[in-house]
Amino acid sequence: MKPFAVRRCIAALAAGATLTLTLSTCATMTAPEARPAAPVAPTQHHVVGSPHGDRIDEYYWLRDDDSQAKRPQIMDYLRAENAYTEAMLAHTQPLQERLVRELRARIKEDDASVPVYDNGYWYSTRFEVGAEYPVHLRQRGGVDGPDAAAPLEVTLDLPALAKGKPFFSLGGFAVSPDNQWLAWTEDTVGRRINTLRIKNLATGAVLPVRIEGVLEDLVWAADNATLFYIRQDPQTLQSGPVYRHVRGSDPAADVLVYDEPDKTLFASVGHTASREFITLWLTGFTTTELRVVPAHAPAQAPRVALPRRPDVRSYADHLAGRWIIRTNDGARNFRLMQAGEATLADPARWTELVAHREDATLEDFALFHRALVLEERVEANSRLRVLPWDGKGGFSVAADETAFVMNLSANRDPALPRARYVYDSMVTPQTTYDVDLVTGARTVRKTQPVLGYERSLYDSARLWVPSRDGKRIPVSIMWRKDRFERDGRAPLLLLGYGAYGYSYDPHLSSSALSLLDRGFAYAIAHVRGGSELGEGWYEAGKLEHKQNSFNDFVDVTRHLKSERWAGKVFASGGSAGGLLMGAIANQAGMEYAGISMWVPFLDVVTTMLDETIPLTTNEWTQWGDPREKAAYERLLAYSPYDNIERKPYPPILMHSGLWDSQVQYFEPAKYVARLRARKTDANPLLLHMDLESGHGGKSGRFEQLREQAREYAFFLDLAGVRQ
C-alpha cells in the first residue's frame, strides 16, 4: 500500500496541480519495502489542428522549444521520471556496475586509429588511458607511409577542448591545401548547433574568430584563405545558406554563396577527388543537384553542374578530366556513368561504365588514379569490386564469411596505390584492410581490439525468415556456443531499424558479449525500409508501404520463437528504429518480454504536420505529407502516440536527450505520460531523459557505457538473470 503522502501527491497531480517540487518528490516518497510510485503527469486540453480533423493532445504542454532552458514545470516532470527510473532499477545497480566494468574491460584504452593519408600527411587519432576523447595527430610522409623521422604533430587536443563541458562533439575537420590551417566545428550542447573555429597548425595559435550556428561541413579553397561553410536555419537547425569566410576577416563580412529556396533539400559542401572544384550538393530523398565553384576562383558564383530532376538521384565525382556519376536514372539499383568536362549537365551524352543489375545495388564508389572501386550490395552483404581504368584485371575483394559487411573507408587522396576498407561481421571485430589496386593483395592494417574476446567461443548465421506476404527477410544472428541452446527457452535480443534506405549491417558488438555470455542470442532483423536487398526493399518499407517494416519485425519475432531460437524475445531500436519499437508495442506488444527505445520517433502525425520542427519537411518523402488526406490517414493508422490503447503492454525502457534536435525530447516524454495513463498492466514503464545530451546520447566513450549497461540490466533482470 502506498504511503498517504504518495497517494496525495499522485491525486494532486492527476487533478492538474503544479509540477513544481511536488512531482520531483513523488518517486522517492515510498516506504522502503514498497514499489516506487510512478510520476503522473497532469493533462491539459490542447487541440492539434489539421486540414483533415482535429486531435486532442493532453500532454502537449510538455513541449518547450526554447533552445536554452525548458520551463520549470517540464524539468520537474523529467527529473521525476529520472528519479522513478533510478528507483525502479535500484535493485539492478550492482549488475549495472558489473556490466560497466565488463564493457570497459573490453576497450583498449590507449588505442589509436589507423593513419589515413591526405596531401603529404598521415592523419590519426589516439586515446590516452582513461580519456573520454582522442587527440588528433598527423605525421608527414608519402603514399607508401609516414616518414619515420618526421615529428608527430598534434592538430587538435579534444580532451583539452572538452574539459569542463558536459557534452562535446567534434563535427567538421578540414585542413587547408598548404597544410598550414585547420578549421573545425564543435558542438558543446548536443543539439548539432556548431561553432566554427580556425587554428594555425604551424604556430598552434587558435584565431579569435568564432562563427556560431553552423553545420559540420567545411571546405577550403585553393587560396588557403577562403573557407566555405553552411549556416543553420535558426528554426529547424537544418541546412541554411552557404557562406564563404576569408581567414582574418570579420565574419559579419562573410559572403552569401547560395541559399536554396526548397527547404526539403539538405545542403552540403566539399571538394572533388581532383581538388579542382568546391562542391555544393543539394540532396533530398528523391532528387539531387550539384553546383560547383572552381577551387582556384572561390569568388565565382556556383554554377549548376548536375541539374536536379524529379525522382532522379545522381552523385558525381571528378578526377583526371572526367566526371563519374552514380545514378538511378533508368536504374533503380543505380548504375555508373562517365561524362566529360563539358557534358556532365547533359545525361544524353553520358557513357555507361557499370550497368544496372537487379541482383546488386551500387551503393558507393571511390576514384583513384589507378582504378575505380565500387561498393555493391548483394543478398544483404556489402562488398567491393576494383575496376582498373584500362579495363584489364578487374577483381572482387575476397570475403571470408557468408554474412558480412565490407565498406569503403577513408580514401582521401587519389594518388594512393591501395584502397582502404573496413570488414565486419557479427563475430569478427572490425578489421581495416588496404587492397592493392593492381594485384588485389590484401593487407591488414588493424583489427580493432576487443580485449578478452575469444572468437572460437561464438558463432553466427544468416537466416531467411518468411514474411506474411511471401518475402524473405534476412536476419543476422549471433550466440555463444557453450552458453546457448536452441531449445526454445533462451532469451534473445532483436534489433531493427528499417527506414531511409539505411542498411542495418552486422557488426560485432563488444557490448552485446555481456548478454551472450549470460545465455542470450543477439540478432538483427533486416526489415523492409532499409536497403539490404536493394532499392526495392527500401521502397517497400516507406510511405504507403511503411506497415511492412512493422510486420516484418513481428514476423521475425514469431519465427525465431517457432524455430526454437528463443523463448523470450526482447526488442530494441533507436530513432526511426524507435518508431519501429513504438509500432510493435501497440500492434504486438505482448510478443515481447521487454522493449527498449532510444530517442524514439513516436508522435508521427503531430511532428509531420509541424514545419518548424527539424527534419519535418525533409522527410515528407519518407513518411508522407499529412497535409494530404491519404497520407494523414496512413500516418495516423500507425503513429505510436496516437494508437496507445487501454490494454496490457510489455515492460518498456525509454532513453532520450533533452537537447535532441532530430527527435525532440517531448515525443518520448508525452508517449510515456499517455501510455502510463492508459495501459492496464503493472509492467514497468521507465523514461531516462539525459538532461545534458542530444540525439547521440553521451559524448564520451566511457560515459556511453552506463547508458548501455542500464538497458542490458533492464533486459537481464526481466529474463531472470541477476549476475
Could you please describe the fold and organization of this structure?
With 723 residues, the protein is of the alpha+beta class. The chain contains 14 helices and 38 strands. Helix 4 (93-105) crosses helix 14 and helix 8 (547-562) crosses helix 9. It starts with a helix and ends in a 5-residue tail after the last helix. Mean pLDDT is 91; it is low at 1-33.
Please render the helix and strand layout as text.
Elements: H1 4-14, H2 22-26, E1 47-48, E2 55-56, H3 72-88, H4 93-105, E3 116-118, E4 121-126, E5 135-142, E6 145-146, E7 152-157, H5 158-162, E8 169-175, E9 181-187, E10 194-200, E11 211-220, E12 226-232, E13 239-246, E14 255-258, E15 266-271, E16 277-283, E17 288-294, E18 303-306, E19 314-319, E20 322-327, E21 335-340, E22 351-354, E23 361-367, E24 371-378, E25 381-388, E26 395-396, E27 405-408, E28 418-424, E29 431-436, E30 442-447, E31 458-466, E32 472-480, E33 491-495, H6 513-516, E34 521-525, H7 535-539, H8 547-562, E35 568-574, H9 576-588, E36 594-598, H10 604-609, H11 620-623, H12 629-638, E37 652-657, H13 666-678, E38 685-690, H14 703-718
Parallel strand pairs: 33-34, 33-35, 35-36, 36-37, 37-38
Antiparallel strand pairs: 1-2, 3-4, 4-5, 5-6, 5-7, 8-9, 9-10, 10-11, 11-12, 12-13, 13-14, 15-16, 16-17, 17-18, 19-20, 20-21, 21-22, 23-24, 24-25, 25-26, 27-28, 28-29, 29-30, 31-32, 32-34
